[in-house]
Amino acid sequence: MHTIDLTYAGLGIHEELVAYVADQQNYYEQEGVHVALRDGRAWDGERIRRTATIGLGRAVVSRLTDGVPWTVLCVNTDRPLFWLLARDACASVEELKGRRIGIHPPQTAPGCFSRIVLSRLGLDPDHDVQPVVMTPGDYGCHLRKLAQRSLDAAFVGSTLAPEVTAEENGLRLLAFVGDYFRFPTVGVAVDPTHIAPDDPAVLALVRASRRALRTIRDQPDLAVRYLNALIPSLSTAEALQYFERYVAPYFTADGRHDPGVCAQAVSSMAEELGVSTVPDTADIYRTEPAEGSAA
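Above: the chain's sequence. Below: its structure in C-alpha cell form.
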C-alpha cells in the first residue's frame, strides 16, 4: 500500500467534496494508496510543497509569483465556488459603488478571483469600492458584519449554500464568481521537486479522484447525500438545489482540463498579480485535454 499526504487550502464543498466521495467510497484503498488528508490552510508554501494538494488556485499563484513548479494532474472544476452576497438595501452590483465589501486577501487566489469579478462587473476594486480584507473560514464573521451593517457586501465560499444563506439572513445573492471567471481551482497537483508526477502513490490518488468525479456524475443521489453530509444544516431539497446549480453542471467527469480556459485564466491571474512573465500553461496542466476542448 502506497501512502501520500493530501492537503486542502480551504473548507467547503469546493475543496472537500471529491476527496470526501473518494474516501467514503473506499476508492483510495481500492487503488492501493493510503491518503492522509491534511489541513494546509495555515501552512507555509514550503510545507505544502512536500505534499499533494487539492488547492490548485494557491498552487498556481505560487507558480506565478515564486516560480514553484507545481504540476496539475487532475481538475475537479474550473468554476470557483465563491459568491457575492449583499445587504438587502443593495439591489444590484452597481449599487455597491462606494460601499464596504468583505474580500479575501488580494495576493490569494480567491482574492484575485474577487477583484477580477468586480472589474468584470464594472467596479474598480481599488477605487469604486471600499475593500475590507478578511480571513476566510466558515464565513460566519462575514455574515455577522453584514447583519451589523459594518459590511455592505461580502464574498463567501462553499461552506454555505448561497441561496439558503441569503434567504435566511435577509441578503441578496448578486453574483456567482464562476459565472464571470473560470479558473481550475481544485483537483490534484504536486511539486516535482519533492514528489514525482508519476509516483505510484500520485497515480493512485489521481485514479481515485477521477473515480469520485465519475460517481458524482453518474450517481447524483449518492453525491447529494455526501454534499448534505458536508453541510448538514441543509435540507435534502436544499442540498439537491445546491448540487444541481453548482456541482452537476460544472464538475468534470474525468479530471481533465480545457486548455483554452486554462490559458485565459492564468493570463488574467498573472495580470492581476502584476506578473509579467507568464509560464506556458501546458507546463502547469498535465491532465489529458478534455475531448472537444479548445487548443
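Residues 290-295 have pLDDT under 50 and may be disordered.
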